[in-house]
Amino acid sequence: MNTSKEFFVVRILGAPGPKWSGDGSLSGENYPDIKNSSRGNYKPDLGNSSGVYPLASFRQRLVGFIIDELLVMSLLFVIWIILAVVFRYESPIVASQMAVASSLLRIGYGCIFNPRGWSPGKRYAGIRIVREDGLPPGLTYGLSRTAGAFVSRNIFLLGYLWAKWDRKSQTLHDKLARTYVVSISQEFVVTDMEDLSQK
Fold first, then answer.
1. What range does the domain containing 145 cover?
2. At residue 120, does pLDDT exceed 60?
3. Which of 24, 49, 59, 198 is least surrounded, with the fewest CB atoms within 10 Å of its CB?
């Protein structure tokens, strides 16, 4: 192997934890453009990185989604107990309050995590949300994605299932916010930058 052609990836992944500190980028100081990448690959800047980060698989996204849903449902269970005690188990009142609490909690959860590009479920699944230029979504893209996710959920989760068949594995809310979900649990080592650029 010709070691002169080997490069090393600088991972600056953003909070939380020691491995997630920094500004949230995936390839150091220069950010890639994945808008026109192939279906399978997210390519960091080839002059400064050897990493090829694949777009997240539907299975990875599903694992992250389920974990996030379990966390939200756990919080909703606590809220349900509180409301049941306050309203003395009057079913119609508790049911209506729970419907409101469920929507607000999910929107709040998205508003907290989508701008950052990760959530507890996504971290566990080894995936991150990025914009077309490889940066974390930030407030504008993150809030747009949260609003889109609300729509995706309320059309019987069809917006989420969209990623199963989409050419670039985007959900409806990814398309609305112009974001992508990439896998950081895998990194392909590039030894010949010319070969990669031709893919």
1. 3-197
2. yes
3. 198
